[in-house]
Amino acid sequence: MKVKEFIKKNNLNCFVEGNLEKEIVSGYAGDFLSNTISRAGDNCIWFTVMNNVNVAAVALLVDCAVICLCENVSPDNSLLEKAKNQKINIIGTELNMYSAIKRFDI
C-alpha cells in the first residue's frame, strides 16, 4: 500500500509529506535507534515515540517509507526541517505503538 493510501485509509495526521508514493511493505516498532538501524526493513512504516532529528537520520539509513509518531507525539522543529529537506514522510496517531500496530493492517 502506498503511504498516501495508508494515510487516507486510517485518517492519520500528516506532519511532513515527503514521497507519498512510496510503497509500505513491512512495519517496525521501536525507540532504540540502533535496533531500528539493524532490524527495520526497507520501505517499512516505523512506529516510534522518538521525535528528534536523529529519527530522520535513521529513517534515511533504513530507507523507511514513513515514520509514524505514536501517542500524540509531534516532531520537534529540527526533525520537521530535516524531514522536509530529505522528503521523509512523517505521520502521527494518538494510539500507542501496540494499539497502532494492531489497528493498522500492515
**Total discrete domains:** 1
Stretches where pLDDT is under 50 for at least 5 consecutive residues are: none
Query: For the record, what is the CATH homologous superfamily label?
Result: HprK N-terminal domain-like
The main sheet orders its strands as 1-5-4-3-2
The rounded Rg comes to 12 Å
Sheet/helix structural class: alpha/beta
Distance separating the two termini? 8 Å
| Largest sheet entry | 5 strands, mixed
Secondary-structure element pattern, one letter each: HEEHEHEHEH
Task: Please give the CATH architecture.
Answer: 3-Layer(aba) Sandwich
Apparent shape: globular
SS summary, helix count = 5
Q: What's the helical proportion of residues?
A: 25-40%
CATH class: Alpha Beta
Q: How does this structure look, described?
A:
A five-stranded mixed β-sheet has the order 1-5-4-3-2, with helices on both faces. The longest helix has 10 residues. Helix 3 runs parallel beside helix 4. The chain has one domain: 3-Layer(aba) Sandwich (Udp-n-acetylmuramoylalanyl-d-glutamate--2,6- Diaminopimelate Ligase, Chain: A, domain 1). Strand 3, helix 3 and strand 4 form a beta-alpha-beta unit. It is of the alpha/beta class.
